[in-house]
Write a structure and sequence with these properties.
- The chain is about 40% helix and about 10% strand.
- It contains 13 helices and ten strands.
- A ten-stranded mixed beta sheet has the order 7-6-5-4-3-2-1-8-9-10.
């Protein structure tokens, strides 16, 4: 039986800005998911038996805050009315931050909504790619939203897309986060997905640039304890490298329905949310059915799901056989294999070389420099706590490592 961990819902495809690297189709459409569609979705999700105690719901794939707060109040009431005893639901938004005001802050606090804000660093870096539809920069309004979150005490993280320019500016990026009181940082790379072809990936030295960026950024964070609480790429790499030897390598992106996505019209897809909107005759446009006309539990038997699962598993097996990093990755991200290699039945991508291999190399390099502990059975947490000291080159309190549900 599938276990659904993450449900991505597109409340609207519309976005109030026009980022140059955005992969989403139809982001000019102002369609809004209906109340009936949400009720059909959650009634079937909870009746399926696929939720094991907790379900993370991300409102994404468009700008969620272009819809009024009352839309989400009603949506959350629908979820609460249908949610069975023993199941909890956590909601989160990924937003460009431009529409955050006190009313939104009140709602986020009241409903305990997780919030991720997309900001690509200081103004001259952010405004290179994140533009309005008329070509104007969006930094000023985004940073105003971030500052309001801070003033109101709303916990948030930021996601910054690393492209060619900010990859060369780790110190400037670090200083920006510190100056704005940003404590939790996640990095995405400007990747090739959908109709977007990454300009950064075309550069021959992107791997070296990425490694230097992450190495210097981690060094700066370690040299300034307390400034940042969380760096997703580093913290996750440490968790993967330091886990017990017999721990299973988990990869929710290769398990059917572990990540389930629904678009504004009720169409259902799985594996990678980015598959929604892509076209494929072989895989039936990656759509398994529609929640308004089909039973969710029946989608597990759809032939196109079987075709996708067969090819994704074949690609995972190739990774298992050929890649020495398999234990920290679990077979990669199917949508990146498809976008970069043209097929699920493939292995290495630039995306995995950057975000998995080079970050793992960085952590392993730090481990190699740890002095002998005098014991052959040091606890993983103890070793992890020493890593920032090693990068920093002096003794001090290690940065907090915590689990994360990203946005």
């Amino acid at each position: 039986m599938p276990v659904m961990e993450l449900l991505v819902i597109q409340p609207t495809p519309f976005c109030n800005i026009n980022c140059s690297y955005c992969y989403l189709p139809n982001r000019h459409s102002k369609a809004v998911v209906s109340r009936e569609t949400l009720a059909n979705l959650f009634s079937q999700v909870f009746a399926s038996g696929w939720v094991d105690g907790f379900l993370s719901v991300v409102w994404h794939a468009g700008e969620p805050m272009v819809l009024p707060i009352e839309f989400y109040r009603e949506a959350f009431r629908i979820v609460d009315a249908l949610k069975p005893a023993g199941v909890s639901v956590g909601h989160s938004f990924q937003t460009n931050g431009m529409l955050i005001d006190d009313a939104w802050c009140d709602f986020l606090i009241e409903q305990d909504v997780g919030i991720g804000v997309s900001v690509d660093g200081p103004k001259h870096l952010h405004d290179r790619h994140r533009l309005t539809r008329s070509g104007q920069g969006t930094f000023d309004r985004t940073i105003a939203g971030i500052r309001r979150l801070r003033r109101r005490g709303v916990r948030f993280h930021v996601i910054s897309v690393l492209s060619s320019l900010n990859l060369k500016a780790p110190a400037e990026m670090f200083d920006f986060y510190v100056s704005e009181g940003i404590k939790e940082v996640c990095f995405n790379v400007e990747e090739s997905e959908g109709s977007h072809v990454s300009s950064s990936f075309a550069q021959g030295d992107v791997e070296a640039d990425y490694y230097r960026f992450m190495s210097e950024f981690w060094r700066l964070s370690s040299a300034n304890p307390g400034k940042l609480d969380f760096i997703r790429e580093i913290d996750h790499a440490i968790q993967q490298v330091m886990r017990p030897r017999d721990a299973i390598t988990a990869n929710q992106l290769i398990e059917p329905f572990a990540v389930t996505s629904m678009d504004v019209a009720g169409n259902i897809s799985t594996f990678s949310p980015e598959l929604l909107g892509l076209k494929s005759e072989k895989y039936g446009d990656y759509l398994l059915g529609n929640i308004n006309t089909d039973r969710l539990v029946d989608l597990a038997g759809r032939p196109n799901l079987g075709n996708m699962q067969r090819d994704i598993r074949a690609g995972v097996e190739l990774c298992r056989q050929q890649c020495q990093y398999f234990s920290v990755c679990g077979g990669g991200e199917p949508v990146n294999k498809l976008s970069e290699n043209g097929t699920f039945v493939s292995t290495e991508t630039t995306y995995c070389r950057l975000t998995r291999k080079r970050v793992t190399d960085l952590v392993l390099s730090a481990l190699d420099r740890l002095p002998p502990s005098g014991s052959c059975a040091s606890a993983p947490d103890d070793i992890a706590d020493n890593l920032p000291d090693l990068v920093r080159g002096e003794g001090s309190t290690a940065s907090r490592i915590e689990p994360w549900v990203g946005g």
